[in-house]
């Protein structure tokens, strides 16, 4: 926040509700000059505006505004492309795919891309130390199957999904959309996505998030 924006907040605190024209008069500036500052303060939550009434101070502090910003981030703002294999993929190929994609969890889908299960590093490691032939063993045999798979929807809050990841001690969740007779996998949300959201929030305190496809 710059010096002029701080001054605007003090004016609104003392005189609100007050119109943009009256704020401009007190600063000896034009309404057009103040428009960007008023827009930033309104979008940030410091001020609110009502038609034919003017601007008034919301009373929110920086800590409250930051909390509100975090709570307003949705899964759809930050989910990345899903990493999936078909349920007839061999465990060997799944291990290679997990290594090349550098992920800790792979989502398993059927021919219609509907979610059928999840395979983790632990699942693949457990299978690899056995005496089974990995190239002929399908991931469907070792995966966690539906309905025991935890998933989320694009409209859910990112902070809620983060709590699920912590509570269940998992690396990622499939992002799904409801379709007839199943769930379509449309993305993944991981601890990395949540970290990117926090970094973006620190760099863009006004809430202008950057979507990621990593």
CATH H-level homologous superfamily name of the largest domain: CBS-domain
Q: Per CATH, which architecture of the largest domain? A: Roll
Radius of gyration: 25 Å
> What distance lies between the first and last C-alpha atoms, to the nearest angstrom?
31 Å
Helix and strand layout, with pairings?
Elements: H1 3-15, H2 20-27, H3 31-44, E1 47-50, E2 54-57, H4 62-72, H5 75-78, E3 84-86, H6 91-101, E4 105-109, E5 115-120, H7 121-128, H8 139-142, E6 144-145, E7 152-153, H9 158-168, E8 172-179, E9 182-190, H10 191-203
Parallel strand pairs: 3-4, 7-8
Antiparallel strand pairs: 1-2, 4-5, 5-6, 8-9
Helix pairs in contact: 2-3, 6-7
Task: Explain the overall architecture.
The chain has 214 residues and is of the alpha/beta class. The chain has 2 domains: 58 residues, Orthogonal Bundle (Arc Repressor Mutant, subunit A), CATH 1.10.10.10; 124 residues, CBS-domain (Roll), CATH 3.10.580.10. It is 45% helix and 20% strand. It is built from 10 helices and 9 strands. The strands form 3 sheets. A 4-stranded mixed β-sheet has the order 3-4-5-6. Strands 7-8-9 form a 3-stranded mixed β-sheet. The two termini are 31 Å apart. 24% of the residues are buried. The C terminus is likely disordered.
